[in-house]
Structure formats: structure tokens, C-alpha cells
Known about the structure:
Rossmann fold
Amino acid sequence: MTDSQAILKGDRLALARLLTKVENDSPEGRAALIELFPHTGRAHLIGVTGAPGTGKSSLVNQLALHYRKTEDRRVAIVAVDPSSPFTGGAVLGDRVRMRDLSGDPNVFIRSMASRGSLGGLAQATANMVQIFDAAGFDIIMIETVGAGQSEVDIARLAHTTLVVEAPGLGDDIQAIKAGILEIADILVVNKADRPGVENTEKALKSMLELAHPTERVFKHHGTYMSVSVPKPTTNAKLWIPPIQRTISIEGTGIPELAESIAKHVEHLRQSGDWALRERTRLEVEVEALIRDSLMTRFHEDVSSKKYEEVLEKVVQRNISPWEAVKMLLNGRLK
Amino acid sequence: MTDSQAILKGDRLALARLLTKVENDSPEGRAALIELFPHTGRAHLIGVTGAPGTGKSSLVNQLALHYRKTEDRRVAIVAVDPSSPFTGGAVLGDRVRMRDLSGDPNVFIRSMASRGSLGGLAQATANMVQIFDAAGFDIIMIETVGAGQSEVDIARLAHTTLVVEAPGLGDDIQAIKAGILEIADILVVNKADRPGVENTEKALKSMLELAHPTERVFKHHGTYMSVSVPKPTTNAKLWIPPIQRTISIEGTGIPELAESIAKHVEHLRQSGDWALRERTRLEVEVEALIRDSLMTRFHEDVSSKKYEEVLEKVVQRNISPWEAVKMLLNGRLK
């Protein structure tokens, strides 16, 4: 019996083994992804993102407990830490999680540190999620740290994205979130027993309004400064992200949050957005694989001697990077 | 006279115009990059990264002032905010900067919000930097917010990378930095008049030691948890990152920081690392351009009808993404 077959039967050791193979992008991992793909598409993918200090991990923990206790759903957690590209800092929060969830055969937690490149990380996460999906986990939570592009890329994997805030993290941390708010389906104000919770909520509300500006604004502060604002994506949302208060450490607000999540799933199903997000996700994945394949073929085709020669010309400033690319691709792949 | 020629003569309006063209990846922008490339390779690129709240922008401001006043060097600042992928939050800190630097014709500040993809952002930043380099700016500071992969990618552009910390930002913010420490050439403890500065410095020192572990550690917490640690890069550094205290708001420690930066440049020149970093940077750029070109050609070659058909099969779970890629690339580019 292959690992793939074992996984479909619920073998956890085979699952752990295969996750490693998939993370390492090994041939067996790839074969399993192909074999298991027809069994995917059933899980609800929930992205959870937020700055350090918001209590994100404990929130994920509590949500998992809730889904176990009240709905008996199988839960997988993929904790991704893109902030640690070299040494692997993905062990944060693991201790907290273990206490309540360990020993439950219907919970599986996988921590993942960053790979060399961000594309690689998002791809590896997508692959992990597929394996969990095929293995019959009903809910897969993808937890990411921070508020950068990486989180956005990973959040794009999810059907429902929670953005976690907490009071008292400083003024400019609030400001920094303006961007990530737009990927939020649900806003969570965790640590809601802290002073300043009203202010955080108020700030979030006004930022939600700012997040979907009706007109494009150009600013030009003085003569020597120029600011460019990228075009907003034209993704008219009918869903207005609710703001949920929680105190994850004691479980307060978790049932209400789970209810919000259920409502969002309902909205996705009814509006057709579920299918749309599925399609987008798969398209992004196909594009990434094409990119990888084309690059692999390119490096197989072009001798490393020629490549080094052309690169040296760039280093010497004899030709520009653009001209180098023309030179390297010329006569190939019309 | 083309914009490129005007820029070489110091025309600031042409510079502003061209930066926009380059940021928008327009044909004129590309042509100018090719034309100007032989004039690049002279500037010192300084990356400045750190979490929100560390006073990074004001530090960059003060460093720029220092280079203007004491060394009469021309300074460009590229402020990148990858945390704001949609609405453009790159205006943070601009107000602070303007007060002291506006009106100085030898300072040019450009804020940049994130593009659609991270690759695009790093590429756009690299292109901006090339334009500033060709335009004769001696020092180009690339400021990024946060501690994610995007910052790492952008920091790879720089010759010298400063990682900025501040006391009192919370415990787990410290932990989160373990990864980014490895890209630091100089560590800055800003807001050094705050309580807790000794602790922050102590934490940084011990993390510096941890950041270059001699053995690879695997952890396995309990049965249902697996943690993977990526291989550390084998980049033996002779340079030990110094820790500099600053109070940027009042300029304290700035001359000492500038001295550290100068020492790092000396180290890069003497060790041959300067040439190595230049080469790596240009190689990354060439690779990115090849990737883009191959994808563009692919989408020109494959009809959107065929592409949609294959994608639909994936969405229907009839074929896996891997099989889709094989189908799309089959018979092409051997």
C-alpha cells in the first residue's frame, strides 16, 4: 500500500511521512499529489494572519478545540512562519497548542519554516493543504505571522481569512495593517479584556471604510517627492467583514467567531465566490508550476558556461540584464 | 534629449518622470533601463529594515541628513511598503522626512507601495535603484517595513543591510526577528533612551550567536507534530554585525552608525564580498527577467481557449495541476 492509499484510509504516520516528502518536493511527494488530487476540494480552508503579539496561535488552538468539541470536525493546522527564512522559527506557539490538542487523532498540526523563496513557501503550503484535504480533514487552518506580502499570498489560498488584531500594540502597527485589512473576511480583536479595546475596534471600523476607497488618490508632498498608489483591485464584495471580539486564552468569543465563519461559508456558497476562490487558487498553482517547469527547462537547455559568460558581461556592465535575457533566450522557444 | 540623457545631466523632473515609467514597467522605462545600465554600479546600496515602531523612517532621515551635511554625498531613498498590497500605505514617515530634507536638490525620496506580486516588488525596487545609481546618487537607502520574506528579498539588493530594533516592542517581536538577523550587517537599537535598552541589546547578542547554529536541530513535540528546519545557507561571514545604539529623533548615535557603515564598505571591498554581492544581485535580476519572459512567451503561445479548457479540468478535479502543466507544455520547448 502506498502512502497515498494509506492516507485515504486515515493512516497518520503515512500522513506525516508524506507531508515531509511533499515539503521537500521529492518525486514521491509529487506523485502523491497527483494521485491524491481527485480527493481534494472538500475541506474548508481558513487563513489566520496577524502581527506577533495578537495571540493568533492561541486563537487557532481554541478554534480547533471548538470544532472538535461541538462539531466533531477533523482539523488540520498548518503554521507558516515566513519571517524566519534561514533558521526556522516555526516552533512558536507549538507548546501552547500541544497542551489541549495533543493525543486527539482528529487533529494534525504541522509547522513550517520558510523555504528559500516566497513562491516556494506559498507553493509548499498549497501542497500541504492538498494532502490534508485529501486525507479528509474538514477544516484546514493556515496560520501565518505578520502583515507582509507573504501573508497575502498565503491568505489567497484560503476560503475564509481571519485577520487578528489586539489592543495596545502601538499606533503605527495599526497603520501598517491598512493593506492587509482588504484580504480580511473576518476581523478578530483578540485579547479583548485589555484596555483600549474600544479604540482598536473603532480604528478597525474606520480603516475598513478607508480600505475600499471610491476614488484614487495621488499625493505629491512638495517638489521632490512622488507617491504612487496602485490601482485597487475591482473585486466588489458583498460581504462586509464583521469584527469579532475574543479572549482566546480563556475561550471567550470563540463560539461567536465560529458562527461568523459559518456565515461566511454560507455567503461564499450562495454568492458563487466559493467556486471563484477555488478556481483562482488552482490557477495560481498552475501558473507557479508552469513558471518552475519553464525555468527548469531553461537551465537544462542553456549550458552553464554560456550562462556564466553572459552573466559576466552584465557584471562588467557591457550589456544590461535585459540584453542578457535576449541573448540567452534567442533562437530558443519561439 | 531623452529622459535618460536628461537624468545623466541631473534633471530631477526627468528623473521623477522616468521612475514612474520604470515602476509601471512601460516600454520607455525598459528602454531607459537598458540605456542607463552602463552608468550603474557606483552607488552604495543600504537596506534598512525593521518592524513598525522601531523608528526606521526617522533613522533613514537622520542618516540622509548626516551624509548631506558631513560628506556632501547625494542621497536617494526608496521606501518600500510590502505590507500594503492594495491601497498603498507607502506614505508612512513621509511627513517626518519632508521637514528636514525637502528643498535639498541632492536628496530624492521615492515611496513605493507593493505591486501585485512580491517578485514584481523586488524587481521594481531593483529597477528604481538602477535609475538612481545611473543618476549619480552616491548612497541609495532602501527602506522596508516588517520582517517577512519580502524584506529579505529586498535586502538582498543591498550592499549593507541595517536591521533596526527598539526596546519595549514586546517579547515575541524579539523572537520573530531571529530569521532576519541573519541578513543584518549592522544591528541598530533605536530609541535607545527607552527603558529596557540593555535587555534588547542582550537579546540581540544572544540571538546573533543562535543565528549561526553549528548543528541542525530537529524537534518532534509529541506524536502528532513535526517541525522542519531548512538547511542553513553556507555563507561564512568574517564580518561580525556590530550593535549600534541610536536615538534617531534627536540624532544621537548617527555619526557612529555612519562610521560602522563605512567600515562595512571597507570590509566588503577588502574581502571581495562587494563584487560577490553585485554579482548575486545581477544574477537574481537576470533570473527574474528570464522567468517573466518565459511566462510572457508561454501565454502568447498557448491560446487562452486551451488554457481555460485545461484549467477547467483541474477545477473539476479531472486532472491534477501537475498533469495540467504537462498538457500545456507538451510538444513545446523541448
